[in-house]
Amino acid sequence: MAQRTAGIHHITAFVRDPQENVDFYAGVLGLRLVKQTINFDAPEVYHLYFGNQIGSPGTAITFFPWPESRLGEVGGGQVGTITFAVPSGTLSFWQERLERLGVAAERTQRFGEDYLNFKDYDGLHLEIVEREEGPESEWSFGGVPANKAIKGFGGAQLLSMAPAKTMDLLENVMGLIKVGEENGWVRYQAYGDLGNLVDVNSGPVKFGRGGSGTVHHIAWRAADDEDHAKWRAHILEQGFNPTPIVDRQYFNAVYFREAGGILFEIATDTPGFDNDEPADALGEKLMLPEWYEPNRAEIEAGLLPFKVRVLEGDQA
């Protein structure tokens, strides 16, 4: 049986200031900070995860806040735009909210859907779209009630340096189905109900430069460890060069760079973000893997403090 991913597991990006990052994704967008840890490969940098009430697969956007990072440039070899899905009938709420909080937003259309396009404080390209499918979030924060909250990912726009090869990968390796083509974009659909629609550029794009305001990688879902091992073997058989399986505490990961220059990851749905702290206390303190615990004092001393806080504009 061919391997098929349910869709996006998480997306990880570079930003600069952790407080601004938390203010935007928790304060403005109303997402829950479900985990604060460190970049396991660079422990002097936070790794912050935001999502629905438990950071379910398909809802988690994650960040490496690196205060000294250069400003990136969105372009080829990257995820160009991250799409969030909200309940039907709530796009006007989000447009009014963003404008009230000083975030410039513009309405656009693609594949028969209305989108609200905007950027975060670091210039990361984001958009919101209404979708019927996918469970509603149970999390509410600040001025965002649960019935209007972001459900998770709607999908993403991929900016490939080799679009034909990226599209071949999505269809014939990842198991997505081509469902449309319009105005220089080709749309592919996975079988899941969140993070299931991705659009790929059909024409050339300028090469991007990594840095704050750009995406580091996009991760795709594997059901469990057994499925994950099959994915690694499958990727290897297709001529790619995947990394060994890496333990990320909350999922296992395999990375490879596809022919269009975009860094892909395959991540397991299990064990989840409540692996090392209770669900009702997610994200409240810095969690370290056991191999970094002896260095906790040194690591904490090098990280900028931040607070999850309700923004002034949401205070009565």
Structure in words:
The chain has helices at 18-28, 91-100, 163-172, 225-237, 296-301; strands at residues 8-15, 32-39, 42-51, 60-65, 78-86, 106-110, 113-119, 125-130, 152-159, 177-182, 185-189, 197-201, 215-222, 246-247, 252-257, 263-268. The chain has a single domain, classed as 2,3-Dihydroxybiphenyl 1,2-Dioxygenase, domain 1. Strands 2-3-4-1-13-16-15-14 form an 8-stranded mixed sheet. Strands 6-7-8-5-9-12-11-10 form an 8-stranded mixed sheet, covered by helices on one side. It starts with 7 loop residues before the first strand and ends in a 15-residue tail after the last helix. It is globular, with a radius of gyration of 18 Å. It contains 5 helices and 16 strands. A hairpin with a 5-residue loop joins β7 and β8 (125-130).
Keywords:
316 residues; alpha+beta; 2,3-Dihydroxybiphenyl 1,2-Dioxygenase, domain 1; 8-stranded mixed beta sheet; 33% strand
Note the beta-strand portion: 25-35%
List unreliable stretches of 5+ residues. none
CATH architecture: Roll
Helix content: 10-25%
What is the name of the CATH superfamily? 2,3-Dihydroxybiphenyl 1,2-Dioxygenase, domain 1
The helix-strand sequence is EHEEEEHEEEEHEEEEHEEEH
Which radius of gyration do the C-alpha atoms yield? 18 Å
How many distinct folded domains?
Answer: 1
Largest sheet report: 8 strands, mixed
Spatial order of the strands forming the largest sheet: 2-3-4-1-13-16-15-14
Number of E-type strands: 16
What is the overall number of helices?
5
Distance between the termini: 56 Å
**Which structural class do you get from the secondary structure elements?**
alpha+beta
Q: Could you please say which CATH topology applies here?
A: 2,3-Dihydroxybiphenyl 1,2-Dioxygenase, domain 1
Shape verdict: globular
**Highest CATH level, the class:** Alpha Beta
Protein name: Ring-cleaving dioxygenase
Domain VOC: 7-131, 152-269
GO molecular function: dioxygenase activity
Keywords: Dioxygenase, Oxidoreductase
